[in-house]
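Quick board copy: two proteins, each given as sequence then tokens.
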Amino acid sequence: MTALFALATSLLWGLADFGGGLLTRRFPALTVVVVSQALAVLVLGTVVLATGAWHEAGPLLWYAVAAGVVGPAAMLAFYKALALGPMGVVSPLGSLGVVVPVSVGLLLGDRPGLAQFAGIGVAVFGVVLAGGPELRGAPVQRQAVLLTLVAAFGFGAVMALIAEASTTLTGLFLALFVQRVTNVAVGGGALWLSVRRGGRALPEGGGGLRAVLAVLPALAFVGLADVAANGTYALAAQRGPVTVAAVLASLYPVVTAVAARGVLKERLRAVQAAGAGLALVGTVLLATG
């Protein structure tokens, strides 16, 4: 079940990233983050009320609060890095956040078998290649690399924190709700500051609010897919080795690349295709090891 939940996580995160990437071509990134997460809060709030999950409130929810603070900060650092330096470098580096939950799992006593260790190495290498690293071309700004590493650490920290935020299914609903409320509070505060400093929350020109309303279903999908991914990852980490769950969940860049190929007709470079193949080989080793 660990492999199944973790692969579901990679699928959901990959689709959420693809959808979010498309939306940020039309709207400011902060607007996409805040609105999509606010819609997720409404759905999760309903689930919490329907299941009585609030009865499981306890100290573990501080892990969810921490994940809610770290997540938006990591996303903002990632977007800034994408603006500064070639996406072919930034995207693969961003996937290195898997090191954080893997390290936590090893510290907590996870001991994967030999085949699984091999699968971890092959899968991580495949994910990096699947991002299409640019080995030649313009030099990368040091700030872009630093911001990407900050974002990667943040993404990995969220994975580690949300896995510790609950011990039951209803507790997980509550933890995800708290995480999303914190996301909206932090992201909303950042959006407000951005507007105060001359930034914009809606597209330039008329009809900005109508444009947002027109894509509410897409925004809801991005928010709910991200929530569901956090939930399936937490279930995967609770049911098996965190090291295995984290690496399988980190395959989401492959999903994003395939979605871009299928929907936007973007052609995969040879290095990306090779990376996707290696990631699948690593997945098989992890699942069967």
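And the next:
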Amino acid sequence: MKTIDITLQQLHKMVWTEPLSTLAKKYALSDNGFRKLCKKNSIPLPKNGYWQKLKYNKVVKIEKLTNTSTENNSIKLVLRSEGSTISYDQPLLTIRTKEIQNDNKAPLNVPQTILKPHHLSIETKRHWADFKINKYNYDRSISCISIRVTNENRKRALILMDTFIKLLEYRGHKVIIQRGDTVAILNDVEVKLDLREASRRIPKPGSYPTFELEDTGEFILKTGKYSIDKEWRDGKNKIETILAKIVAWMEIETEKWAEYD
């Protein structure tokens, strides 16, 4: 494994010269790893629109390095190679997914019941209870996670989304309810979240071909904003088992969006 030692000043110059996604292709550190390294050493990073301006030779402002400490001023970077647990020659999505999976503190395990519910989960249950009683006169001020499943699948759906939201927040992101939508904010980019139950069309007998919809019990989690739009479905593996991959994908896509926004 070939390594290089750089100073804080050199790292500062690197992150203002090349996008983090490009640096991640050169060194055995993901773009999110670079982001954390810079945060740890108080190194400012380019804001949204910086790379787009640079691309078209527009005037850009480079924030100065304020951390002038000489203590731990040397940083060791590993050039891309085969690592002991992660191969940095693999696709970035695989690398990021493994980083999340290898974090022992990451809330990845989906429990059977919610022990410490997120406040949005509490509000969602309160909304469901209020809607059951008041129907069309329910309290619209109560926040609710975007969940559209049959009543018998609500428990699984709420536990899944509770875990997913906690994982996003653990990774340093935010999840809010905005104008009725559930929105995750990653790298200052908003991504709508929606969990629904899949259905299939069942032909109805008659002289004219008609259909009725039947719920299947399979979940579809949609993460979307313009090009950041993807559906994750139950299949051979349930959505609960791929939360690390979903978060990794969202992080990578929003980082790209933020760099060229």
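Board note added afterward: The radius of gyration is 22 Å.
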